[in-house]
Amino acid sequence: MSFSSDCVTKLVNDFQARRPIRAGSLIITVYGDAIVPRGGAVWLGSLYQLLAPIGINERLVRTSVYRLTQDTWLQGEKVGRRSYYSLSNAGQRRFEQAFKRVYHGQQAQWTGKWTLAMLTQLEPELRQKVRDELEWLGFGSFATGILAHPTLSCNDTTAVLQDMGASEDTIIMQTESSNPMVIKPLRLQVKESWNLDELAKSYKLFLEKFRPLWQALANDGDLLSEEECFIARVLLIHEYRKVQLRDPQLPDELLPAAWEGRNAYQLSRNIYRAIHQRAERWLDKHLETAEGPLPAPNTRFYQRFGGLA
Q1: Selection from 199, 273, 276, 278 nearest residue 240 by Cα
Q2: What is the CA radius of gyration of the chain?
Q3: Closest CA to 43 of 96, 85, 90, 13
Q4: pTM
Q5: Domain that holds residue 151
Q6: Domain CATH number, residue 74
Q7: Residue 14 half-sphere exposure toward CB, CA atoms < 13 A
Q8: d(Cα 230, Cα 272) in Å, to the nearest integer?
Q9: Cβ distance 139 to 248 under 8 Å?
Q10: How far is C-alpha 150 from the chain's CA centre?
Q11: What is the SS3 assignment for 86?
Q12: DSSP code, position 35
């Protein structure tokens, strides 16, 4: 067995050692990374085959898919005796918001504007749900009942609130900065509103986990099988996405100079570019739609991480 194969085995063992195993989250990673670019729907039996080598058995896949459907992430369709699942409209929106940050790390230059969401007029139970959703999207708390985001637009924020039935009772505003380059007080505010120290630790752990794989790929990466490339790719994006979900994606002007998030993106890009083609060949052989073989990846797939060969 090659050093690179050993690295993939260790990643799988680390994933299986966690309790509880978050199979639903891993399934969303598989959909976002592998299935959405290739038509979006897949036979449930295909998921069994894909996830078995990672330690997710058929019963757990079935239970997790049911829960994801109940939580409006997935929607199912029966064709004969087979069930095919795709992202729901709500799941598609969440996918777009979460995964575009994973594959496209560069941010446009910040204008100094902030989108504010004032939750003070919401009923307490709904207010907490809205707060959780907005914080998931990267909003930070500027004051009691007031959340802020430096780059998410008012329109995108309103769309989220409409899906939650909270748009009519939430005040959405966009600020104009008289001097966006007055950075010192903004950085102090950011430190109060987002826990960047904890996030930096998570990025550091991610780097420690996946750097050995990158080093192995540089030495004997051609020895990885198509299945191992798929497994490595899924676990790479899964672990990176988990950290990204807690990253508010703040503009460079508001981040520390030595920010581990930049290194994590670079490492993810390097590994992904090295193994994506063999992983795609594995998907060609093991994923099936209601119409038959899986369609080829769409053009957006090849734009990931600044462009794939």
Answers
A1: 199
A2: 20
A3: 85
A4: 0.84
A5: 115-176
A6: 1.10.10.10
A7: 17
A8: 10
A9: yes
A10: 19
A11: strand
A12: I
Q: Which residue has the tokens 């996946």?
A: 210
Query: Which is it for the CA torsion 27, 32, 37, 41, positive or negative?
Result: positive
Report d(CA 187, CA 193) in Å as an integer: 10
What type of residue is 195? N
> What is the chain's pLDDT, residue by residue, as a tens digit (309 residues)?
677 899 999 999 999 998 888 899 999 999 999 999 999 999 999 999 999 999 999 999 999 999 999 999 999 999 988 999 999 988 888 788 777 788 987 666 788 889 999 999 999 999 999 999 999 888 999 999 999 998 889 999 999 999 899 999 999 999 887 665 567 788 888 888 988 889 999 999 999 999 999 999 988 878 899 999 999 999 999 999 999 888 888 888 888 878 899 999 999 999 999 999 999 999 999 888 888 888 999 999 999 999 997
Q: How many CB atoms lie within 10 A of CB 288?
A: 17
Beta strands in 112-154 (DSSP E): 115-118, 140-143, 146-149
Co-location of 237 and 199 in the same domain: yes
Mark whether 28 and 157 lie in a shared domain: no
CA distance linking residue 244 with residue 238, whole number of Å: 10
Token pair 């594959």 is found at: 103
